[in-house]
Design brief:
The structure holds two protein chains of two kinds.
Chain A (H helix, E strand, L loop, with lengths): L1 E8 L2 H14 L8 E3 L23 H9 L4 E4 L5 H9 L3 E4 L5 H5 L2 E8 L8 E10 L1 E4 L1
Parallel strand pairs in A: 1-2, 2-3, 3-4
Antiparallel strand pairs in A: 1-6, 4-7, 5-6
Chain B lengths: L1 E4 H15 L5 H13 L2 H20 L9 E9 L2 E4 L3 H15 L22 E7 L4 E8 L1 H4 L3 E5 L4 H16 L7 E9 L1 H10 L12 H15 L13 E11 L4 E8 L5 E5 L1
Parallel strand pairs in B: 1-3, 2-4, 7-8
Antiparallel strand pairs in B: 2-5, 5-10, 6-9, 7-9
The chains are: A alpha/beta, B alpha/beta.
Chain lengths: 141, 277
């Protein structure tokens, strides 16, 4: 399927920050948003640099607590753990695959990109992305 | 004695990385295009996107994968070479620094514990080998970590022999599944010590897809392992079909009590180059 709309990047370091924020304040950042497990290259001439998916199992540790708090939609690559899969299903979430390694291809599907949270994390900051015809495959539902 | 300025090394490293992070390996590009034609369903869909990605990266001059990797550089230095003008280590790192900064490549290198990014993808992982003669060869690789994380080391009991080697490589690839972005290339190092096996497995990846192993026995073993891996039916991004494009083996004598086997997995975004100065 092809996705058009707003998604937000979050990978290893940002997920850790989001969890810390949740534990400290009780607020779930990016609740009800679609998280894209990705970290872009610096932007050259376009709106953002190359940005394909990263391997999602590294975010498995956050899947249950994020889902419990309303963050249920993600895009990434590779196999999720059984625990992560169960958590996504239990809370009515969906996980999608994007095609790994296709950084330049996915870059072209992004029309607007802004840093949204944690700019100090550089490539691992949370980016808000407006995507058009962004190809994904349903992996867990 | 031959004098080579370290500036020449720096420029070669810089140009090398600027090229490999953007331009797909030609043989891999052709192999994926062929594979796409004979694939169906989601595998064909994934392979088609991979092929289009290669074309877009080249056309737009952007990295083909956002994980522009950790820079690995094997320096093979002739013992009759005099390196003039500074430190070769600093020259290699400066080449990496300039390439990653000017190329808008992602800086992914950080302190292993503090997780603080160095900002310019340095330091590179540099290996030095001293050889006879006055040549200087740089083997450079941008190694992404989706595949690097799936690499494995097995310190086998010698009693397991060849079958143990085959089983270990197949097990590593099977457990990796779709994580290392298949179709993959598998580098295998057999023998030596723990670190020697790992180095051999990394160095084996500099071979091209159409190469054959100079040792007939290893060539045969490469084919056996590649066939077994392809029976796993993992395929492009785990959607079924061909999993490994090639298996490349290097070996070294080892201790009578051991049989080290290291496996470095390379994703389909193969980025390496051999530069002779």
């Amino acid at each position: 399927m092809y996705l058009s709309g707003t998604i937000y990047t979050a990978r290893d370091a940002a997920s850790k920050r989001i969890l810390a924020h949740l534990q400290k304040t009780g607020e779930m950042l990016l609740a009800d948003k679609i998280i894209y497990h990705a970290g872009p290259c610096p932007k050259g001439k376009g709106v953002i640099g190359s940005i394909g998916p990263t391997t999602s199992y590294r975010m498995d540790a956050y899947a249950k607590i994020f889902a419990q708090n309303g963050q249920r939609y993600s895009i990434g690559k590779g196999k999720r753990s059984i625990e992560a899969e169960q958590a996504i299903k239990a809370y009515g979430g969906v996980h999608f695959d994007a095609i790994g390694g296709a950084g330049a291809f996915y870059m072209q599907k992004i029309q607007k990109a802004d840093i949204y949270l944690f700019p100090e994390l550089g490539a691992e900051a949370v980016w808000k992305l407006e995507v058009v015809d962004f190809p994904i495959v349903v992996s867990i539902i | 004695m031959r004098t080579i300025s370290v500036d020449v090394v720096k420029s070669a490293v810089k140009q090398g990385f600027l090229e490999i992070c953007v331009s797909a390996n030609r043989q891999v590009e052709l192999a994926l295009a062929d594979l796409a034609k004979e694939s169906k369903g989601l595998s064909a869909f994934a392979l088609d996107i991979m092929s289009r990605n290669f074309a877009i990266a080249k056309e737009k001059n952007v990295p083909l994968c956002q994980d522009t990797g950790m820079a690995v550089v094997f320096c093979e230095i002739g013992q009759e070479v005099y390196l003039q003008g500074g430190s070769i280590e600093e020259a290699v790192n400066q080449g990496v620094r300039e390439a990653y900064t000017e190329g808008c490549f992602r800086a992914s290198v950080l302190d292993a514990l503090e997780r603080k990014n160095t900002g310019d993808n340095t330091p590179a992982v540099i290996h030095y080998e001293i050889k006879q003669g006055d040549g200087l060869t740089l083997r450079i690789m941008a190694k992404g970590f989706g595949s690097e994380n799936m690499s494995r080391l097995f310190m086998l009991s010698p009693s397991l022999g060849e079958q143990g080697i085959i089983d270990s490589v197949v097990k590593a690839v099977s457990e990796a599944g779709a994580n290392p972005c298949p179709p993959i290339i598998v580098g295998v190092g057999i023998g030596g010590t723990m670190e020697k096996a790992a180095l051999l497995s990394k160095r084996a990846l500099f071979r091209e897809l159409d190469s054959t192993n100079q040792e007939p026995k290893l060539n045969e073993l490469e084919e056996i392992i590649c066939d077994k891996i392809n029976q796993l039916n993992i395929g492009a991004m785990g959607y079924g079909g061909k999993t490994a494009l090639k298996v490349c083996i290097e070996k070294y004598p080892t201790h009578l009590a051991g049989l080290p086997v290291a496996i470095t997995i390379q994703c389909h975004a193969v980025r390496h180059k051999v530069i002779k100065l």
